[in-house]
Write a structure and sequence with these properties.
This protein has helices spanning 2-10, 12-31, 65-76, 88-109, 112-115, 121-145, 150-157, 184-198, 202-211, 225-236, 261-280, 284-309, 311-314, 317-338, 351-360, 363-378, 384-401, 409-434, 443-455, 458-469, 474-481, 486-494, 496-516, 520-529, 557-577, 582-590, 598-607, 628-643, 651-667, 678-695, and strands at residues 53-54, 59-62, 82-85, 164-169, 172-177, 221-223, 242-246, 251-253. The chain has 707 residues and is mainly alpha-helical. It has 3 domains: 24-31 and 284-471, no CATH class; 77-236, no CATH class; 484-697, Hypothetical protein af1432 (Orthogonal Bundle), CATH 1.10.3210. A 4-stranded mixed beta sheet has the order 5-4-3-6. The radius of gyration is 42 Å and the shape is flat.
Amino acid sequence: MSKYFRWIRQNLNNIYRFLITSMTIILITLLFPNIGNFKYEYQKGKPWMHETLIAPFDFALLKTDSEISQEKDSILNKFYPFFKKDTAVITEITNKFNSDFDKKWSQFTKSGSYKKLNNSNQTKEKEFLRLKEYLILNLSKIYEFGIADFQNEQKELGFKRPDFINKSVNNLNEVVPTENIYTPKSAYQFISNQLKTDFPSSAYQSFIQELNIDSYLLPNLFYDAAMSEQVKASMLSMVSLSKGIIESGTRIVLVGDVIDDHTFLVLESLKKDYENILGSSQNHYLIVIGQCMLIISCILLLFLYLRNFRKQILHDNKKLLFILLFVLLYVALTTLVLKFTKVNIYIIPFALITIVVRTLMDSRTALFVFIITVLLTGFLAPNGFEFVFLQLSAGIMAIYSLPRLERRGQLVLTGIITFLTYSIVYFAFAITQESNIADIKWVNFMFFAINGLFITFSYSLIYIFEKLFGFLSDVTLIELSNQNHPLLRQLLQHSPGTFQHCLQVANLAEAAINKIGGNPLLVRTGALYHDIGKMKHPAYFIENQLTNSNPHDKLDFDKSAQIITDHVKFGVKIAKKHKLPQLIIDFIETHHGAGRVQYFYTSFKNKYPDKEIDEEKFTYPGPDPFTKETAVLMMADSVEASSRSLKEKTPETIRALIDKIIDKQIAENRFQNADITFKNINQIKEIFTNALINVYHARIEYPKENE
């Protein structure tokens, strides 16, 4: 049992990679539709390249999208929206009106305009009842017909005022013309005109204005969305998707025949029935096995690429999980979009894969992950060849247009280029298939535009993936290398000499990496932070000493060596406190590797030749550089620091110093874990030599003016 657990611990990473890969394959298989694949490829306007096709069974001939759309429009022209009458409104309005009328009539009879009428009390009572009953009767008639606020319904629900509506009263429906339905405005106009005719007196007209009749004219007919949509759906369900039967044995197309509109429609109808029959057959599990094998093949191709060209990604669980999740995400997104007939698959920003993976990893990996994703989704997409060709064109152009993401404005340009690529390639496909510009589906260009717009939002997506998976993008490196970064400003304030040293090392390392290949932005940023640990005891480092007084003169050699080596430990601690990425911390840990503090080691050995030396006290904690960038930084750091001690700075002395330092590092096997060659090292020496000669070049002495 102990051997079993030991084996698990030893192979934990391999088990983890196997599990996440297996889970990805299973989930993608589940996302694939359980239907077979039609075994023939064809395109409208192209010749039939297979054997003569005979209908293998009876199948329905599908209608075209335009035919179905026309039938639906025809049916919807006969559809009248449902409006439900709220019978409680008239009751509430009547109660409110009775109360308000009585109060305002009492005030009206006390006014001067009414007293001028000289009405007796008996007349006064008759007029009260006549006007009140008149208004209640007219309000009842208006509410009986119904009041509907069509203008508000149009704003809220998006439909125009229909010619007819279904008026629903107590679950009884009646089709009525909308001209017989009042709006609040038309109801007020009607009752106002009636009152002017039947009560022309200015005194009564003044009272009617005080009553504010329009406040009692509220809608009592309201759009019944649930009923309307239910009836509309029922009517549309009556539309047949087919328009005939192609009988078994009918010749569909001959070898070499150009596929015209009718033949294309017949082939599409056969394809749909063929795939459904395969999916519903007893052997449908064979389809699932075949789909699973295709998915495994694609994932295997991805792993072969990583194994041969990007082993560091394959062995990094977080990066591998990121790639597999990204592939799974796009397959799931494609499956989801294909379920909505009103949304086109071209709205999915596949080119975003190249941008995100390129920014977080590299261009080659981005292209390979993109190709694998497009191949997998190509099994799902209609017109698979057209889909794959379009996506590859757009994805490759996206990579070319964004060699390095440094500004958000670059994403706008990439989005425009992607949109143009989609549009041009799709237009080329469309005119070869339709041979008529009028028949091109221009709505697809809108989806291409939305696709390009989505790409401009990838900046936020990159940030999210950086934080979730611990990536370090060029955008973050640019932010970190800004000299106004709080930690760099702190370094400048506490250790100005060290800050200048870091700048010079950054310039040397960046120039070298640009020559031999690598990430210049990464090495520059790492160089700027590699000595931040010196802020703990800045005065103990010679570049920060402004006087001839050296605090090391008062310390033992081993104590001095401890202070010098501890700047690596303190640097890592400061970097973690400020949440610097691990890739930057690697530069701090490796810029001296596991080398010795040679000055104090030699001094101790000379002073105490018979005393046993504790090597650990004079040795940096390491590790040695393990990447090309960290190796270059070690060379640049040692060369720049040592060049300051040269008494005579000539091309010969500078070249000799650089050779001596780097050759010693090679002899100590400092670069055995780094991916760097002797050719690279010779190139680096030459770059360092030229750079330092330019820094320390002799200047002419200006003549003094004779007095």
